[in-house]
Amino acid sequence: MQRILPCPTPSAPPRPLHDRLASRQLEQRLAASLPPHTLMQRAGLAVARLAMAWQPHAQRIVVLAGGGNNGGDGLVAATRLARDWPQRDVAVWWQGAPERLPDDARWAWQQARAANLTWLQAAPEHPPDLVIDALLGLGLDRPVRGTALAALRWLQACPAPTLCVDLPSGLDANTGHWWADAPPQPAAQRATLSLLTLKPGLFTGHGRVVAGASIWFDDLGAEPEPGTAAAWLVAPGGWPDTAALRADHASHKGSRGDVLVLGGALPHAHAGIGMGGAALLAARAALRAGAGRVYAALLGDAEQVPPWDMGQPALMLRSATAALDSDLPERATVVAGCGGGPAMATLLDAVLARCPRLVLDADALNALAQRPDPEPLAARQARGWWTVLTPHPLEAARLLRTDTATVQRDRLAAARTLAERWHAVVVLKGSGSVVAAPGLTPRIVASGSGWLATAGSGDTLAGLLGARLSTLPWPAPPEDLQAAVADTVALHGTLPEHWPHRWPPTASDLLP
Ligand SMILES: NC(=O)C1=CN([C@@H]2O[C@H](COP(=O)(O)OP(=O)(O)OC[C@H]3O[C@@H](n4cnc5c(N)ncnc54)[C@H](O)[C@@H]3O)[C@@H](O)[C@H]2O)[C@@H](O)CC1
Ligand SMILES: Nc1ncnc2c1ncn2[C@@H]1O[C@H](COP(=O)(O)OP(=O)(O)O)[C@@H](O)[C@H]1O
């Protein structure tokens, strides 16, 4: 058994995530090679052991078990707890029907009937010391209804520590969609033990909210075939390598990468609305991440451009016109769009045609969404040029011509579709950011929290991406580009963790 979150080693290699179909195929293959019920026995024992390791003082334990194999795992766990920890009071609230039990779960139910367990007919009157949630698992692919919904509502409201078996009941294994007509409740006192495989839904969509702070994994002895993963889970890696930067005595500012941030509409250029801060946030982040020279080109008249950035005088400010009149678009990694406003639309063609290393964010994405033709991006891909798109769910919906709910309903699918349609590496931002690239298995980033939900944190990410791409060896295979982008998103997700105060950080606190 291994702990997955919080990530025990920051530089752990990516882990495969398997969807419902691949998990079921693996389960069938493994079950066929073992004596009957072995897998369920292993699963139930793993649950019982983790329950007692996690909540060693729990005396009154309630196992909420459904009528499928997830419930079967719960029944085995209840039987083992009653047998191996006899001083505990173990009660089962079972939601199944004997005539509809699958084979393994029937066996587990028969074992449980013979064990020293209390069988509840309704929700317990008082919260126990520990709940084991084995109501619904991998099998859930439609809205929860009937008695299961009533049980799920009790579970969501119950203040007791809860260990979820395989998946939190109500969560879709593939997508992280929440299937219940009862709002998912975040809970610090919730943990999940994923069995056989790790599922994508645990790490994106509603997964991070409902799975709890602590995610564990037991493969039950399974060895997935290569090429069967639906996605890879990425932990924060070692970039930027500050020790290596310091030890590189032969380096100079010209060897550390140039970044041009193109955005930040000045008030006179955008109906009195100033968004220069967004470009400065991105530019400051690029500088902090180690880029040698960072230029911030603002949209508006040259004489309105402030002479310097008081917070980061090392930044070089200029107008977008001046930047486009220079060789910076060809030479630097260009981050376009942060706070650019509608004027970005007039610059998009030039940017697409001239910038070999390009990150498009915010208003550059909105400008892109207004033109249905992906041909300029296909041409960039054919030339081996890099294009990274960083939409949040609403920008993704505009690019896909759909709505935010549809994007969020299946974030992996949305990111994959965007990457294929726009011939680009796509970062679909939000809880469990997805990094998709044409023809490659997507990556899901495990870091990040609600502390990033503040205006400007996306600009910081765009700047970090600019810095990362500016030193990535050129040309790079698509796999390396996708991995570098995912590592950067993972690093961005860890930034709030360094914040020492009780109040949450602002975007400019993330990388001052
Ligand atoms: N068979 C085995 O040996 C193993 C089983 N495992 C467990 O098996 C689980 C998968 O089992 P199943 O395929 O039986 O699926 P589940 O137990 O997740 O779900 C099926 C049950 O839930 C009910 N149900 C489904 N959707 C519902 C809805 N929307 N509203 C109300 N009730 C609903 C069904 O009527 C059925 O009783 C995994 O999550 C895992 O816990 C794993 O531990 C691996 C080993
Ligand atoms: N609840 C959350 N959990 C994890 N990451 C989040 C959360 N909310 C926001 N983020 C991250 O913060 C950033 C916000 O980006 P964006 O919405 O573009 O902000 P802005 O445009 O204000 O800069 C993204 O990287 C996103 O993934």
Automatic annotation (TrEMBL):
Record domain YjeF C-terminal: where: 236-512
Write out the residues that bind K(+).
N70, D133, S169
UniProt catalytic activity: (6R)-NADPHX = (6S)-NADPHX; (6S)-NADHX + ADP = AMP + phosphate + NADH + H(+); (6S)-NADPHX + ADP = AMP + phosphate + NADPH + H(+); (6R)-NADHX = (6S)-NADHX
Q: What's its EC?
A: 4.2.1.136, 5.1.99.6
Which Pfam families does this entry report, sorted A to Z?
A: Carb_kinase (PF01256), YjeF_N (PF03853)
- Provide the alphabetized UniProt keywords: ATP-binding, Isomerase, Lyase, Metal-binding, Multifunctional enzyme, NAD, NADP, Nucleotide-binding, Potassium
Return one Gene Ontology term, BP aspect.
metabolite repair
Q: Which cofactors is this protein said to need? A: Mg(2+); K(+)
Domain of life according to the entry: Bacteria
The UniProt record gives the binding positions of (6S)-NADPHX as 69-73, 137-143, 166, 278, 339, 392, 459
> Which PROSITE patterns does this UniProt record tie to the protein?
YJEF_C_2, YJEF_C_3, YJEF_N
Q: Where does AMP bind?
A: K429, G430, S431, G432, S433, G458
A single GO molecular function term of this UniProt record: ATP binding
Q: In what residue span(s) does the YjeF N-terminal domain sit? A: 23-228
What is the UniProt remark on how the cofactor binds and its stoichiometry? Binds 1 potassium ion per subunit.
Q: How does it assemble?
A: Homotetramer.
The record's section on HAMAP family has:
NADHX_dehydratase, NADHX_epimerase
As for what it does, the entry says: Bifunctional enzyme that catalyzes the epimerization of the S- and R-forms of NAD(P)HX and the dehydration of the S-form of NAD(P)HX at the expense of ADP, which is converted to AMP. This allows the repair of both epimers of NAD(P)HX, a damaged form of NAD(P)H that is a result of enzymatic or heat-dependent hydration. Catalyzes the dehydration of the S-form of NAD(P)HX at the expense of ADP, which is converted to AMP. Together with NAD(P)HX epimerase, which catalyzes the epimerization of the S- and R-forms, the enzyme allows the repair of both epimers of NAD(P)HX, a damaged form of NAD(P)H that is a result of enzymatic or heat-dependent hydration.
**To which protein family does this belong?**
Belongs to the NnrD/CARKD family. In the C-terminal section; belongs to the NnrD/CARKD family.
Protein name as annotated? Bifunctional NAD(P)H-hydrate repair enzyme
Which organism was this protein described from? Tepidimonas aquatica
